[in-house]
Structure formats: C-alpha cells, structure tokens
Amino acid sequence: MAVEFAIIAPLLLALLVGIVEFSRIYNAQILITNAAREAARTMAITNDSSAATTAASQVASPYSITVTFAPTTCSAGNQVSSNVASDVSLLTGSWLGIGSSIHITGVGAMRCGG
User: How many angstroms from the chain centroid is the CA of residue 75?
Assistant: First the structure.
C-alpha cells in the first residue's frame, strides 16, 4: 500500500499544483481583459488617457499593468482600443523551464463619444 502511494502521490501533487496555477492565470486573464474594456470605455467617454489608465488600474488592482491606446485621442464616431499588459508571477516559480512569470495581455475597444 505504501509503495503504491509513493508512486501516485507525486503525480497527484503535480496535478493539484497545475490546477491551482491554471486557475490563477485564468483569473488574471479575466481581470486584465476587464481592465482593458474599462480603459477603452473611459477613454471613449472622457477622452482622457490618464483617467482611463486609472480606471484600468482600479479594475486590475492586484497587478502592475501598462496601458496603451490606439489612437491616442478619441474623436466622435471613431473607435479607440486599449491594450493592457501585465506579468503574472507563478506560485511554483521557474518550473520545468517555463519561467517564473507569464505575460498576459487584454484588448478592449469602444466607439468614441459614448
């Protein structure tokens, strides 16, 4: 019985750690995408990139993000898109040569002028 457990335990532990890592990264992806959507929405309404960056930072508060807009100013009838990027650290660190963090991006787009 102990031999079987010694063989299976590392596999089960690796599976459990994989599930936890995947769920953290998936949650981070959702937050970053929501931050990009909020940045695009705020930029489309206010045409203020600093307010839009602040709004995105509030949505993705656990992460350090960078926000870029294209175009940088919003005119009525045009579309503005926002790109939000962040590096999310892994709980397991550098394991199997993957690296200690994963780069995540999110894109949001809105028509300017509300």
Answer: 27
How many domains in the chain?
1
Tokens of 8: 């299976």
Q: Tell me the C-alpha distance between 47 and 105, whole Å.
A: 22
State which residues form the domain around 81: 2-111
DSSP state of 87: E
**pLDDT tens by residue, 55-109:** 999 999 989 999 999 998 988 889 999 999 999 988 887 666 677 889 999 999 9
> Length of the chain, please?
114
Residues facing 49 on adjacent strands: none
Task: State pTM to two decimals.
Answer: 0.85
Angle subtended at Cα 104 by Cα 103 and Cα 106, rounded to the nearest 5 degrees: 150
d(CA 26, CA 41): 23
